Amino acid sequence: xxxxxxxxxxxxxxxxxLQINERLRGRTDLRLLTxxxxxRKDALRRAEAINSADIALLCLPDAAAREAVSLIDNxxxxxxxxxxAHRTDPQWTYGFPEMSPGQSERIAxxxxxxxxxxxxxxxxxxxxxLVQAGLVPADYPLAIHAVSGYSGGGRAQVEQYEGADAANxxxxxxxxxxxxxxxxxxxxxxxxxTQRPVFVPSYGAFRQGIVLTIxxxxxxxxxxxxxxxxxxxxxxxxxxxxHIKVLTAEQGTAAERLDPTLxxxxxxxxxxxxxxxxxxxILLCAVFDNLGKGASGAAVQxxxxxxxxx
Length: 310
Ligand SMILES: NC(=O)C1=CN([C@@H]2O[C@H](COP(=O)(O)OP(=O)(O)OC[C@H]3O[C@@H](n4cnc5c(N)ncnc54)[C@H](OP(=O)(O)O)[C@@H]3O)[C@@H](O)[C@H]2O)C=CC1
Ligand SMILES: CC(=O)N[C@@H](CCC(=O)OP(=O)(O)O)C(=O)O
Hints:
Elements: E1 6-10, H1 15-24, E2 31-33, H2 43-52, E3 55-58, H3 62-70, E4 78-81, E5 93-94, H4 103-109, E6 112-114, H5 118-132, E7 143-149, H6 154-162, E8 172-174, H7 183-191, E9 198-204, E10 210-217, H8 227-237, E11 244-246, H9 249-254, E12 269-276, E13 281-288, H10 292-307
Parallel strand pairs: 1-2, 1-3, 3-4, 4-6, 5-6, 7-9, 11-12
Antiparallel strand pairs: 7-10, 8-9, 10-13, 12-13
Helix pairs in contact: 1-10, 4-10, 5-7
The protein binds NADPH dihydro-nicotinamide-adenine-dinucleotide phosphate (NDP) and ligand 2.
InterPro entries: AGPR (IPR050085), AGPR_dimerisation_dom (IPR058924), AGPR_type-2 (IPR010136), NAD(P)-bd_dom_sf (IPR036291), Semialdehyde_DH_NAD-bd (IPR000534)
Protein name: N-acetyl-gamma-glutamyl-phosphate reductase
Keywords: Amino-acid biosynthesis, Arginine biosynthesis, Cytoplasm, NADP, Oxidoreductase
């Protein structure tokens, strides 16, 4: 390619879009195309921008992301969609490079990449290698709990916590009580589960960061499974991964608490396996930034893969 690749962020004024913009600021290997604020929702201008881009990053609500894809008539345009519109669509490549051997290469050559959801990133990172290793049965009756920073709810929720009425924002909220959150189908598909997991999300009065936990009973696991075996399987899977680290047994013993903000403003994720052997209780944990590895950081990681060779 003679010219530097042209990148368009649709939704660049939103929570995810702004952080992608920040991460790309100062890059000299690409050109960023932005629309004036007043034109950011003008379908005609967006269509022109998307079709002139080499890669379009969609940081939009699901409906607007679907609309954006329908506006594409240039067959060369490549897309990274940060929304949940296409995450279980087999036509789209799932943008989680570390999830299996060859996934980075698939992303690097893909025309359509769907960025994982924030919570699914942690759940799939923990479960997929363990299910594939035969250490967690694919039909295990899973319950996944997670606490996120309020920015997971996008601009409207950020406004509640940072706007004029911030003093009245709840310190902690557990939600999704109808158990119909949008994430379980995505988690089930990409973790390789045969049963839909229960998902219990919460958010607190902190801007960004996630702690996600999954409790397991050893008596429901294969007899050869133990917390050491689970940890070793995760260590094997993520060996050499730049952004995902597994706590060693010593680090796990020393850890007394998990801070959701540990990896804020980075693309890193820490996984941990804790347990009480006497009770046969095991706890899988993931800590990461909902706007880092959970959204904007992951989008830039995928963008960098797709830019290889352009
Ligand atoms: N926040 C998070 O932690 C994560 C978010 N995501 C996903 O990323 C996507 C964006 O989320 P987030 O950044 O949080 O949301 P925000 O609400 O913060 O941002 C969405 C942006 O899209 C703009 N927008 C809405 N409708 C249109 C339209 N028709 N045409 C053009 N622009 C439009 C909004 O403009 P305006 O605000 O001016 O109306 C806003 O700037 C969502 O699909 C979300 O699921 C993924 C992982 C994590
Ligand atoms: C704290 C909070 O509100 N979180 C959001 C999830 C973030 C999001 O928008 O979902 P994706 O990560 O799939 O894009 C929610 O539960 O709807």
